[in-house]
Structures are given as C-alpha cells and as structure tokens.
Design goal:
Layout lengths: L4 H6 L5 H10 L3 H10 L2 E2 L14 E2 L5 E6 L8 H13 L4 E4 L6 H11 L4 E3 L1 H9 L7 H14 L3 E4 L21 H13 L4 H4 L1 H11 L2 E4 L14 H19 L4 E5 L5 H14 L5 E4 L11 H14 L4 E3 L12 H22 L6 H11 L3 H7 L3 H9 L22 H9 L16 H5 L16 H13 L3
Helix pairs in contact: 2-3, 4-14, 4-20, 5-20, 6-7, 7-10, 12-13, 13-14, 15-16, 16-17
The structure holds iron/sulfur cluster.
C-alpha cells in the first residue's frame, strides 16, 4: 500500500513532493522532511490528485491561505463555482475547500480534483447530511462511506468534527451565539437525537485507516469555535481543543498527516496566548484558523475585521488562514467577494510573515517601495498584490501612456508630490539612499509574488474551460 508523506518522512525519505515544496519555499529539502516527520507541517497530497502542485502547511514556512467555495441549497450554479475556483487560484489561494451543499456534489468535486493544481479540502459531513436527509438520520456506515468515497475521488484534506464530545455540549449553554460551526451543530444534533457519543470520535481510528490509505490529511475541525468575541477562549472551546490534541496524537500514530482548525471570533489581545496554547496542546500541529474576527460589529466588512486577527495569528505562528469574504454572516460569496477576501488574506499572511521575520518576506515590500520612489509605475503595478486593481485605480484619473512616466499621481498632484520634491532636493545625493533590492535572489521571488500567490500555475491546465467542459459533461450524466 502506498504510504503517506508522514510515513515516508519518518523513514528518512525525501519524496518528490518534498523536493518540489523545498523549491517553492526556497529551503533545503531536508528541512521539509524533518518538519513533515515531526508533524509540524503537512503536505496535503492525495495519491489520486494527479494535477496537484504540492505545497506545505506549517508555521515555519510561508503562511498559506485557503479559500472556501461551494454551492448552497439556494445557489447551486456550476458556472459560478467554476469561476470561483478560477478566481481563487488566480488571486493566490493556496488551497480551496469545496463546501458545496447544493446539487451535483460528486460531479463538481471530481472536476475540481481533476483540474486544480492546489489541494482540495472538503467537509464530508455535509454530503452525509444531504444523503441522509437530516443530521439525526446519518448512520455510521454512511459517514464512513462518504469519507472513503471522497478520499478515493482525490480530496487532499477532509475536515472532521471529531472533537465535539457530548460532555462538551453543556459548556456552550452560557454562550452568546451557541454553536456556530455547521459541522459542530450537525454533530451536536446527532448526539442529542441518539443520546450517544460523536461517531466521528468513536470511529476515529477507522477514519484514520481510510486517510492513511489515500494520504488524505485530516483537518480536525473546531466544531465549538466561538462565534462572538464574548465566547472566545471559553470552557467549551478549550475542552474541544484538548480533545483535538488527543486526536492529533491518534492520527499521527496511524501515519495520517494532521492539522488543527481554530476560531472564529476572538479579541485581538487574546490571539497570541491562544496560539501558544494550541501549539502546546496539539504538539505543534499546524494551526489553520478562520480569521479570527476581532470584532463582531462590521457585517459587510468582515474580510477586514478577520484579516486583522489573521495577521496577528500569522505573526504568532498560524500555518494557514481560511479567508473570510465581505459576505460573511450575510450570504454566499460571489466571484468578486472571493477576490476581495483573498486580497485581504494575502495581505494578512504576508504582513504576518514580515512581522515574524520569515526569510525574504520583506524583500517584496522593498522591491515595490523602490519602484514607487522611482516613479516606475509599470513595475509598481507588476509587483502589486493585485496588479489589475492597482493599474485600474491609477488609470481612472491618469489613463494615458505618458502618465506612466509621470513623477506624480493624482493624489497630491504634480506641484505637491512629496517624493518628487524630495528627489529634487536631494539632487546628486540621491545615490546615498540605501535602495539595493535583489528580488530575484529572494525567497519572495518563489513564494510570494503576484499574480499567482504562492502557486506557480504555469504549465498547468487553466481551470476555466477545462473544468467547465468536464463538469458539464459529468453533470449531464449525474442522477
Ligand atoms: S503625488 Fe503623492 S501619492 Fe502620488 S506619487 Fe507623489 S507623493 Fe505619492
């Protein structure tokens, strides 16, 4: 049986995936192997995902970003999903989770796996609910069947809410927002209905056996994550976190690559301590956070409230950040929301990496700052996190080609451009400025540069036409 990246790393093998990751992260392959062997990093890479360009998730590497996409009961248009996947990859998502709960689940998932160069994650309990009709009608056999089928389809990581235990549920009674995780609320309803323990917990070793056979990375879901800052770090959240630590050790014993999911909503000043607590309880397992949102008052702007928390989390060792879009709490995100959410999270991840002093992280900043001071507008656009938006905003007021040579923009105007005034005042002493930037030699050149984020998709199939065609064919043959 093919072994997992974790098992091979423990045996001292540097796999082709580890070599590729080392190339992308600009580090020694042995560093990658050691991180995977220790469980402090994971390379989600299902044996059946042939289109995958391997990447790594771990605190000592560049902070990664996940984009959630997927249909809902009310919005299940495949063309929209295709565009979201395309947009997610184009604007720098490192992984994508298909959280579809609408129709054609298999077809969409298969199409995503077939053409996506980035890892695909799922939450199998959603499909189990859809097939069972309601949470209480889910059976253990159905759960295991769905998990195994998705593993066979090539899903690289699956979120399993195995840490929500019966004894944790009363601890949520005093909360402002109760249980806000979809997976957590489904498992709570099942446990109440059956007066029994969480089957994902009681059958966790069987699930691990499935994951080990396909090298599916388990993402231990935080079903009791706080949904309001008042609920952050409460007894329910921390009780579940301790269970996630226990499950981390079980999964690793089975050779399963493991990461742990985190909140949610949390005041800014609590994030650092919480990160340290997770690291200790879960033996350094990569922490994958949703935000966290640092305030609850800004629906419509929660890509910003959460990016603030995500930056702090990245500074304190978050391995991956699950993006939040402006539609959080309000509705299903569309293509433009995906773009805005990803931009916010690439900023958070990069700012966190800069603040954490990761090698080469600030080289990108130095390069664009130099271009800015040089009035090299084309280079500035090229280096911008979202080049299209930077150029279009500039061109709204100064659209002509001659304006690309201008020593000002419309913000301050020609007479009051401080950089132009500064340069004129310096005259010959301009050469004294310390502005040496060799981006080509930097880790930033291979890890962070736009427009594809941390992923080199050159040479890989573009998602658009191929995915659409495949999915449409598959959907036609779906029941
Ligand atoms: S005009 Fe103002 S904003 Fe524009 S380049 Fe000059 S200093 Fe910067």
């Amino acid at each position: 049986m093919a072994r997992t990246q974790l098992q091979r790393a423990r045996d001292g093998e540097v796999t082709p995936a580890m070599d590729r990751v080392a190339e992308r992260e600009n580090c020694d392959p042995e560093v990658v192997r050691e991180s995977v062997a220790s469980g402090e990093a994971v390379i989600p890479s299902n044996h059946a995902h042939d289109a995958l360009d391997p990447m790594i998730i771990g605190a000592e590497f560049g902070t990664k970003i996940n984009a959630n996409i997927g249909t809902s009961e009310t919005t299940s248009d495949y063309d929209t999903e295709r565009e979201k996947l395309h947009t997610a990859i184009e604007y720098g998502a490192d992984t994508v989770m298909d959280l579809s709960t609408g129709s054609n689940l298999d077809s969409i998932r298969t199409a995503h796996v077939e053409h996506s160069p980035i890892p695909l994650g799922t939450v199998p309990i959603y499909e189990a609910v859809k097939r069972a009709g309601s949470p209480e009608d889910i059976t253990v056999d159905l759960l295991l069947e769905v998990i195994e089928k998705q593993a066979e389809q090539g899903v690289d990581y699956q979120t399993i809410h195995a840490g929500v235990l019966r004894e944790h549920l009363p601890k949520t009674d005093g909360r402002v927002t109760g249980i806000v995780s979809r997976g957590g609320s489904i498992m709570a309803e099942w446990m109440e209905a059956h007066d029994a323990q969480n089957p994902l917990y009681t059958h966790f070793e069987e699930i691990c056996a499935i994951f080990a056979a396909h090298d599916v990375t388990v993402s231990l879901g935080d079903g009791l994550r706080p949904g309001a800052i008042a609920d952050a770090n409460d007894a329910a959240q921390l009780a579940e976190l301790r269970t996630l630590g226990e499950l981390t050790r079980v999964a690793r014993e089975h050779g399963v690559q493991t990461m742990v999911e985190g909140p949610g909503h949390m005041p800014l000043d609590e994030i650092g301590d919480h990160m340290a607590q997770q690291r200790e309880i879960c033996d350094g397992a990569p922490y994958y956070l949703l935000g966290p949102l640092v305030t609850d008052v800004a629906p419509g702007y929660d890509h910003i409230t959460s990016a603030i928390g995500a930056t702090e989390a990245a500074r304190h060792g978050a391995a991956m950040l699950c993006y939040v879009t402006p539609k959080e709490h309000l509705g299903l995100p569309d293509d433009e929301d995906v773009r805005d959410g990803l931009a916010a999270y690439r900023i958070a991840a990069h700012a966190g990496d800069v603040a954490a002093g990761k090698p080469g992280a600030s080289d990108w900043d130095d390069a664009i700052s130099a271009a800015r001071y040089d009035f090299d507008w084309r280079r500035q656009f090229e280096l911008a996190l979202d080049p299209d938006r930077a150029k279009s905003y500039h061109d709204q007021t100064l659209p002509d080609d001659t304006h690309k040579e201008a020593r000002y923009c419309s913000m301050c105007g020609a007479d009051f451009c401080s950089m132009r005034i500064d340069q004129d005042a310096r005259g010959d002493s301009m050469a004294d400025l310390n502005r040496s930037v060799d981006l080509a030699e930097s880790a930033a050149a291979s890890v962070n540069l736009p427009p594809t984020g941390t992923h080199d998709t050159s040479g890989l199939p573009t998602v658009s036409a191929a995915v659409c065609e495949h999915a449409e064919n598959a959907i036609e043959s779906d029941d």
